[in-house]
Structure formats: C-alpha cells, structure tokens
Amino acid sequence: MTWIIYGDNQNITDRTNMEPKDLEFEEIRESWNVYELPDKTLIKVKIILSRLIQEGVLDLTGNPVLSFMINTVIGSVPVKKIEGEIIPEENMDFKPVKEPGSEYKLNDGSFLEFKPHVAQINRINSRDQRGDPNYIVQIQPLATFKKHKNGKK
Q: Which of 15, 64, 66, 116 is least surrounded, with the fewest CB atoms within 10 Å of its CB?
C-alpha cells in the first residue's frame, strides 16, 4: 500500500480548522493497463484506491489537499514458456497496449483518476510458482483531480 498526498501541501491558501475526514467514493473504472515486451509477454498493471482523506485545507489552486492509499497490482502473461536459464534483463523495451487507468467518483461529484507511469521493467533471474519469469516493474502513480461540471469543489 502506498500513501500519496495530492495537492500542493507546501502552499496552502486556506488553513481553516477543518478536521481531516475520510471521503466516500464510487469505483467508476478499475482497468488493467497493459504493456507488451519484445517477446510478446504482457505486463499488466492496475491501481486500486482503498482510502481517501480530505486533509481539511485548500492548495493555491483552490483544490482540496487529498491523501490517498492505493494498492498497485502487477502481473505478467507470458506468450511462451521460457526453458532453461532465465537471462536477467534491465530496462527492457516495452510498448503500451492499453492505458485506461482507474477512475473514482467522489460524493461531491468530482472525480479522481489514476494512471500508472511505467518507468522501467526488469526481468530477474527467478521464476514464479508456474515456472514463468518474474519481473520488477517501477511505477509512479499519476493522479488527476477533476471538479464536477458546475465548478464546485
């Protein structure tokens, strides 16, 4: 699990005495982002929001500063079985197949969207329970907060 702060918590404009509060949210989409390696192996990444807290302050843009807890799920789907020794490979080439991300609707009608930025994929010299190669995937989750249509926060 990862805790992330969204909003510019260094430049707070509204330091009201509001207490931080957990926000309810509805899952709109939690989709797999898929990346293809040169050998056609698919790397799948999904970001799942598990907790959302409004910190009780606004940043310079007027958006609430949010903290959220996410879980990142990663899997691989090999096209063919690799026999013999696995050759480790760092910084593998990959291409995006689909990147829909995850999206959540907050009770006030605003939206929070997550997309993984895959920085690097490495194949390591080990196998999973099925004998398939293991991978280390370096990801930076990107969050986008969107106000609802009538402009309220």
A: 15
